[in-house]
Amino acid sequence: MSLDPQIAAVLQQFGALPQPDFAQLDAAAYREVADRMLPPLPGEIMAEVRELTLVGAAGPLDARLYRPVEGEQLPVLLFLHGGGFVIGTLDTHDNLCRSLAMQSGAVVVSLAYRLAPEAPYPAAPMDCYSALCDLLARAEELGVDAQRLALVGDSAGANLAIAVSRLAQAERGPRIRHQCLFYPVTDLRCASPSYDKFAEGYFLTAAMMRWFARQYLSQPQQAEDALASPLLAEDLAGLPPTSLISAEYDPLRDEGEAFAERLRQAGVPVRLRRCAGMIHGFVSMAAFVEPAARALAEAAADLRAALE
After folding, report:
1. Number of domains in the chain
2. Beta strand 74-80 with 48-55: parallel, antiparallel or unpaired?
3. At 113, phi and psi to the nearest 5?
4. pLDDT per residue as tens digits for the range 136-148
5. CB distance 216 to 85 below 8 Å
6. Which one from 104, 130, 155, 165 is the annotated catalytic residue?
7. pLDDT more than 90, % of the chain
8. Cβ proximity of 221 and 271 under 8 Å
């Protein structure tokens, strides 16, 4: 399918912006610009939005809780934001978390894990696993059902969701009922065929993704570590049932879809959807891109069914 017309209009706006030089880009300076790239949009009205502190691997981490309705012990989603392990905040994904909460019927807790390069791999996955354990230990206080738990992440956040699932498996808990992965990073070698096919012109570029990988990994050989690159894991059996959403025009498309196939081969129930005409990050555009809104609704329906 050709590029969706609404997405083409978004790309035209992005194309008019100054393009960073990834040969000499400073992460902190890029953060200041990138985290304000999408203007804030009005989101779903929640019964409660609460700022939290959760215990990370090396200290307290900011988090935000979204409760769609009052007076119920609801299932809980831990949401891990994208941004190449370098950018992204609670605010950049606020609208998406509100939509997920309302459409899934679950409490969403969004986590601000430590970012690279200041906190390189494996800080982020260790933060996310530690924060999840703290969240569940406080389930009664927070009014959530610790037995009905799912993970959601987009891009780098989806990579971290997979890492948390694998850590939970290794540590024999907690039990995760479902993982929902939007266009996940699964291979930090950054060399799948879609990197060449969609190297430029589709928002996330191959050069940008390789820059993110260099910021995240202290040593290039860490890209071979299965916690960083789950596509390279020897065994994926026993991971949670998975919804995986890929975008047709995305450098990460092939590695995400290859990961879905690896899960299937390992006996993990998987629902893979390739969204035609879409680019990386499209689910965050659900407020003004109709196919993105449909994909988000389908993913939320998967989560609702898994957490019944």
Report:
1. 1
2. unpaired
3. -70, 165
4. 999 999 999 999 9
5. yes
6. 155
7. 90
8. no
DSSP sequence for the chain: -PPPHHHHHHHHHHHTSPPP-TTS--HHHHHHHHTTSSPP---PPPSEEEEEEEE-SSSEEEEEEEESSSS--EEEEEEE--STTTS--TTTTHHHHHHHHHHHTSEEEEE----TTTS-TTHHHHHHHHHHHHHHHTHHHHTEEEEEEEEEEETHHHHHHHHHHHHHHHTT-----EEEEES----TT--SHHHHHTSSSSSS-HHHHHHHHHHH-SSGGGGG-TTT-GGG-S--TTPPPEEEEEEEE-TTHHHHHHHHHHHHHTT--EEEEEEEEEETTGGGGTTT-HHHHHHHHHHHHHHHHHT-
Asked if residues 89 and 34 have their Cβ atoms less than 8 Å apart, the reply is no
pLDDT band, very low/low/confident/very high, at 250 (cuts 50, 70, 90) = very high
81 has catalytic annotation: no
Our answer to whether residue 155 is catalytic in this structure is: yes
Of 158, 138, 141, the C-alpha closest to 83 is: 158
Is 100 a residue whose pLDDT tops 70? Answer: yes
Q: Which two tokens stand for residue 18?
A: 């100054």
Of 250, 254, 284, 302, the active-site residue reads 250
User: What's residue 22's pLDDT?
Assistant: 85
Cα-based distances in Å from 162 to 52, 72, 83, 264 = 23, 28, 16, 15
Q: Which of 243, 280, 284, 302 is catalytic?
A: 280
The side-by-side arrangement of strands in the sheet containing 60-67 is 48-55, 60-67, 107-111, 74-80, 144-154, 178-182, 242-249, 270-279
Look up the CATH number of the domain holding residue 204.
Answer: 3.40.50.1820
Distance CA 149, CA 176 (A): 5
Tell me the residue range of the domain where 301 lies.
Answer: 5-306
The answer to whether residue 250 is catalytic is: yes
